[in-house]
TrEMBL record:
Alphabetical UniProt keywords: Glycosyltransferase, Transferase
Binding site for substrate: Q249, R251
Name of the featured protein: Uridine phosphorylase
Known role: Catalyzes the reversible phosphorylytic cleavage of uridine to uracil and ribose-1-phosphate which can then be utilized as carbon and energy sources or in the rescue of pyrimidine bases for nucleotide synthesis. Shows broad substrate specificity and can also accept deoxyuridine and other analogous compounds.
Molecular function as annotated in GO: uridine phosphorylase activity
Highest taxon, organism lineage: Eukaryota
Skewed-composition ranges (Low complexity): 360-380
Binding residue positions for phosphate: R125, R169, M170, G171, T172
Stored InterPro entries: Nucleoside_phosphorylase_CS (IPR018016), Nucleoside_phosphorylase_d (IPR000845), Nucleoside_phosphorylase_sf (IPR035994), Uridine_phosphorylase_euk (IPR010059)
Entry keyword annotation includes Repressor: no
Catalytic activity: uridine + phosphate = alpha-D-ribose 1-phosphate + uracil
Domain Nucleoside phosphorylase: 86-325
Length: 390
């Protein structure tokens, strides 16, 4: 009964938020109608990506090889110009699951019988789904894999003239002295030598790029967790990013092992003593590359074991699946907040708003009509069923 009531309350809250967003949009449209045709058509500004390679402008077309997208066959501003969130995770299945989940969470629908289309399927490398303002991409395993994807996604953002997109990595990790199933939001990503850098070797010379993540974003994400209600902890701490799952993470169960169990224990205790809560394999590249492009970003990973207890992952698949969705739930809450939480706007002068001015909460950014409870439009990942398909 209690859970039914709280689920209804959540639905009502979401519907109210969506209606407020609709009302705000209607106000804008009414204003435009009043201003009539005198209003000039807005030219989209350039993207907000910083430090872009100047030679990109010489590429005609620019081919994003690993995504099978090219500027001569795709209208990037039309197709991707509305993207506000880019979510990345290791596997295609996770990202498809997230794309379907976030669709519902932000009030979008597809007709029954259609399914999401992988926009990068022709390249057979990464999966790419678009759902309204959310782009979801799988990045594979390790720094080189996520680095290639980030180069191409940032160029995609640049060509599409995207404005201030926020990037997330939603992953799994090995916790250190952390209850399995907990969610860790990374405060600082450290490499295998415990340096807060991502090393890129250019012309034989190692360049060290800082792995800066957005502190405010991490705090805001944490504020959206609710350990009592969620049933698990969400904590902020350092993440060790290794170049390998086995020896790179001091496991004793790889094909080779050059250290003793005592050395392993000492290493894990040493890093835990330095504030490291978990280990995974992409956070340094993700943090450094998004930082270089001036993109706000966060790494949110569930811990699937406590490395002080074991190396092998023995948790049943069903439980792992549920844990896998925990970072997704938190990130979805953030997106809902940004898209719909417009409770404190002063709507006293509104022509369509029925609230008596200001429940608390953050000002929300405007939601485009195509992002509200409507069928997805043409620039989304929609695949029509084949004749005869269910
Ligand atoms: O769960 P994902 O996103 O794949 O991330 C973690 O899992 C992989 C290793 O199993 C590494 O890529 C590590 O970073
Ligand atoms: O122990 C773990 C679990 C998931 N991913 C990792 O990189 N390490």
């Amino acid at each position: 009964m209690a859970s039914c009531t709280s689920s209804l309350a959540k639905d009502v809250g979401e519907l109210k938020a969506m209606m407020k967003a609709q009302n705000k949009r209607i106000d804008t449209l009414i204003k435009h109608i009043k201003e009539g045709c005198e209003a000039k058509e807005e030219v989209p500004p350039e993207s907000t990506m910083s430090n872009m390679n100047p030679y990109i402008e010489c590429l005609n077309p620019d081919i994003l090889y690993h995504l099978a997208l090219s500027t001569d066959t795709t209208d990037f501003p039309k197709m991707f110009g509305d993207v506000r969130f880019v979510c990345m995770g290791g596997t295609a299945a996770r990202m498809l699951k997230f794309a379907n989940f976030i669709m519902k969470e932000i009030g979008l629908k597809m007709n029954s019988g259609v399914k999401l289309k992988d926009l990068a399927e022709d390249a057979n490398r990464y999966a790419l789904y678009k759902v309204g303002p959310v782009l979801c991409a799988s990045h594979g395993i390790g720094g080189p894999s996520i680095s290639i994807l980030l180069h191409e996604l940032i160029k995609l953002m640049h060509h599409a003239k995207c404005q201030n997109p926020v990037f997330f990595r939603m992953g799994t990790s090995g916790g250190i002295n952390v209850e399995p199933g907990s969610v860790v939001i990374t405060s600082e990503a450290l490499d295998g030598q415990l340096r807060p850098v991502h090393e890129v070797v250019v012309h034989t010379v190692p360049e060290l790029r800082p792995t800066k993540l957005d502190r405010d974003l991490a705090q805001e994400l944490k504020s959206l967790s609710d350990p009592c209600h969620d049933g698990y902890d969400t904590i902020i701490g350092k993440t060790l990013c290794a170049n390998d799952f086995y020896e790179g993470q001091s496991r004793l169960d790889g094909a080779f092992c050059s250290y003793t169990p005592e050395k392993k224990k000492a290493f894990l205790e040493q890093v835990a003593g330095q504030g490291v809560l978990n280990m995974e394999m992409e956070s340094t590249a993700f943090a450094a590359i998004t930082n270089q492009a001036g993109i706000r970003s966060a790494v949110v990973c569930v811990t699937i074991l406590d490395r002080l207890e074991s190396d092998q992952i023995t948790t049943p698949l069903e439980i792992l699946k549920e844990w896998d969705s925990r970072p997704q739930t938190l990130i979805a809450r953030y997106m809902q907040k940004v898209l719909f939480d417009i409770g404190d706007e002063d709507c006293s002068g509104s022509e369509s708003c029925d609230c008596a001015g200001g429940d608390q909460a953050q000002p929300a950014q405007e939601v485009q009509p195509a992002q509200q409870a409507q069928p997805l439009e043409q620039n989304q990942s929609i695949e029509q069923p084949e004749p005869g398909d269910e």
